[in-house]
């Protein structure tokens, strides 16, 4: 009986405890319900006590651009410092705050498009981030934040913007940067990290070959490739120092460089820029394999090694570019046998300028040098005949119909060059209308040719002075190699007839201008190629240019330079980390961009504009088309 009474007593205590817990749960439910109903009242009480429970928008801008890979005096990377500051800031964010994050390294990335309340996730994501090698686009990122705040429409006291950046010089346009920060300060509570001190650094700012398309100069000579390298120095520039620099030409299937040049520029105190011009000599014994009929791509690599005490940023110590080596270029010379005019016919002047050794019809085309000239009668100039030509020069565009002009347009669409001369004997300018329609030029011309010939039939009447080429215009970049002799070459040129053309309807470069400002030689982009228009005929009744020393280098340098810059080559030499370029039609058939040495591969996708990488090209270096596509390459810089 005693044990039974004791068991009943213990059972009673357990039941009482369960009932007490149940009562507490019921009370807690009622309390939570009451607090929910009294939320506005409690919020007011909390604010009265200095406790703010209002939801805010917190915008974090984290700079992860190239400059943040630099190391500080303590050995830590700038990005690690900035990321730790952002994580510490996040600890003070309220649980009710909505957080948005932007990365300002190119390409700018908005991590949470609509924002997130999951602060633990934000901390984890920030902790995993690494700096990128794209240059900082801080100003653009700040402008994106401004656009987002305008879209949100929140009052300034409910928005906090925190910018974590080293504010390195050159990362953004300072005026735009200041304007963007001022706008953020008006739209939110703005928090900025302190700019980091400028550290000593040397960088390769640019590497530029003389030409992107290289053809041999003469048989038996060692071809040379001119390369200009520009270096810049920052930070402590008061000391004297040297930078051992190596420039190498590399083939994708060669273990060792084909040609190497080493230079050691000496920096004097206060010097911030240094430019070196070097020539890579290609061994003649290997030229046959390097200069092929279809062309072969090679990469040029410039780099240097430096002490961290004078160079805190190693990622900008190397640069890449690509060039194409080809046996020769093929030029179609479209004209008509014409006995009118003085001296040689325009066709003969043109052939002599294109291939001085090729005037003899019996000369083998293989010995004609870097330009192979194919004569195409104007009436037979069609898509089939010029489909394999790199350039087409037309002396009688007045004989072309609309379909033939469309065939010329196809040449520029695949990256070629079209050069039209004003016809020597045409009495109408209707051909220029057909040219403008085919190339969408909107270049109206005068109804008649202007002349400086003697007026009337009076032999005693003095002739007007001929026009001359202006020396006030800058030398076209494509003709820069003629710069040293430019004035001497240009002064003897006179023009007695011309066709005035108004080029204001479409952006164009006036390469040669007459002394009254009228264009003589006009160049413009046309699809992936180039279009040239000469407003005088290649005839001595119009100008003495064909008989003067300028004509041969003018024709040859223009074609070589333009062919090197066309076909998307020029656009693909300015790529930087973070770009997603659209590749020209010469890349059709490529499926990926590969960098075998770094085990990097980026898939290509097709759009209305062309082939585009599905992600930004982040890794600097030389990418190759895959599957193999005539050795197509492109270079990406930091």
What does this protein look like?
The protein is an alpha/beta fold. The protein is 25% helix and 25% strand. The strands form 8 sheets. Strands 17-16-18-19-26-25-24 form a 7-stranded mixed β-sheet. Strand 16 (329-335), helix 8 (346-354) and strand 17 (371-377) form a beta-alpha-beta unit. Helix 5 (138-152) runs parallel beside helix 6. The longest helix has 36 residues, at 2-37. 37% of the residues are buried.
Features:
638 residues, alpha/beta, seven-stranded mixed β-sheet, five-stranded mixed β-sheet, 25% helix
Question: Care to count the β-strands?
Answer: 31
Helix content: 10-25%
- The rounded Rg comes to 35 Å
Q: How does the overall form come out from the CA principal axes? A: elongated
Low-confidence stretches: 39-51, 337-342, 361-367, 454-458
Instruction: Give the strand line-up of the largest sheet.
Output: 17-16-18-19-26-25-24
How much strand content do the residues show?
A: 25-35%
Largest sheet: 7 strands, mixed
| Number of DSSP helical runs | 13
- Structural class comes to alpha/beta
Alpha-carbon distance between the two ends: 92 Å
Residue-averaged pLDDT: 83
């Amino acid at each position: 009986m005693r044990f039974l009474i004791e068991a009943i007593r213990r059972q009673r205590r357990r039941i009482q405890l369960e009932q007490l817990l149940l009562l507490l749960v019921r009370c807690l439910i009622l309390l939570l319900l009451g607090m929910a109903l009294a939320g506005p009242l409690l919020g007011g009480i909390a604010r009265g006590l200095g406790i703010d429970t209002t939801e805010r928008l917190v915008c974090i801008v984290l700079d992860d651009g190239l400059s943040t890979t630099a190391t500080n005096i303590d050995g830590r990377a700038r990005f690690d410092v900035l990321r730790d500051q952002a994580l510490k800031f996040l600890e003070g964010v309220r649980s009710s705050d909505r957080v948005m994050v932007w990365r300002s390294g190119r390409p700018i990335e908005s991590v949470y498009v609509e924002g997130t309340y999951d602060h633990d996730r934000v901390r984890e994501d920030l902790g995993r981030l690494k700096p990128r090698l794209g240059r900082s686009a801080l100003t653009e990122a700040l402008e994106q934040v401004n656009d987002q705040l305008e879209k949100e429409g929140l009052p300034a006291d409910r928005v906090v913007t925190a910018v974590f950046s080293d504010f390195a010089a050159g990362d953004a346009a300072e005026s735009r940067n200041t304007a963007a920060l001022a706008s953020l300060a008006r739209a939110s509570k703005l928090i900025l990290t302190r700019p980091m001190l400028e550290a000593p650094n040397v960088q390769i700012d640019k590497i530029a070959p003389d030409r992107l398309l290289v053809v041999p100069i003469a048989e038996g000579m060692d071809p040379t490739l001119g390369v200009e390298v520009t270096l810049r120095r920052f930070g402590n520039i008061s000391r004297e120092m040297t930078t051992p620099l190596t420039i190498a030409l590399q083939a994708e299937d060669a273990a060792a460089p084909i040609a190497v040049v080493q230079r050691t520029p000496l920096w004097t105190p206060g010097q911030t820029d240094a430019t070196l011009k070097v020539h890579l000599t290609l061994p003649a014994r290997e030229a046959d394999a390097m200069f092929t009929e279809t062309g072969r791509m090679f990469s040029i690599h410039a780099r240097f090694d430096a002490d961290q005490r004078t160079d805190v940023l190693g990622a900008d110590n190397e640069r890449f570019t690509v060039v194409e080596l080809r046996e020769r270029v093929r030029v179609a010379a479209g004209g008509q046998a014409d006995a009118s005019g003085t001296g040689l016919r325009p066709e003969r002047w043109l052939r002599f300028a294109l291939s001085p050794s090729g005037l003899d019809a019996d000369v083998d085309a293989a010995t004609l040098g870097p330009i192979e000239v194919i004569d195409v009668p104007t009436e037979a100039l069609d898509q089939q005949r010029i489909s394999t030509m790199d350039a087409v020069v037309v002396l009688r565009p007045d004989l072309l119909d609309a379909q033939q002009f469309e065939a010329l347009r196809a040449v520029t669409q695949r990256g070629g060059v079209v050069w039209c001369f004003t016809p020597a004997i045409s009495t109408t300018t209707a051909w220029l209308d057909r040219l403008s329609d085919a190339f969408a030029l909107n270049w109206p011309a005068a109804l008649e040719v202007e002349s400086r010939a003697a007026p009337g039939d009076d032999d005693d009447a003095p002739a007007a002075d001929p026009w001359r080429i202006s020396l006030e215009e800058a030398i076209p970049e494509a003709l820069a190699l003629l710069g040293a002799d430019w004035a001497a070459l240009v002064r003897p040129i006179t023009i007695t007839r011309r066709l005035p053309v108004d080029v204001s309807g479409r952006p164009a470069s006036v390469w040669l201008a007459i002394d009254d400002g009228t264009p003589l030689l006009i160049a413009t982009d046309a699809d992936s190629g180039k279009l040239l228009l000469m407003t005088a005929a290649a005839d001595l009744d119009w100008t003495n240019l064909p008989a003067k020393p300028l004509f041969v280098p003018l024709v040859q340098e223009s074609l070589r330079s333009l062919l090197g810059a066309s076909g998307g080559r020029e656009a693909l030499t300015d790529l930087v980390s973070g770009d997603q370029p659209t590749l020209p039609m010469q890349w059709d058939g490529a499926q990926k961009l590969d960098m075998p040495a770094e085990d990097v591969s980026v898939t290509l996708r097709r759009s209305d504009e062309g082939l585009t990488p599905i992600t930004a090209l982040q890794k600097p270096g030389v990418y190759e088309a895959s599957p193999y596509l005539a050795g197509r390459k492109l270079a990406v810089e930091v």
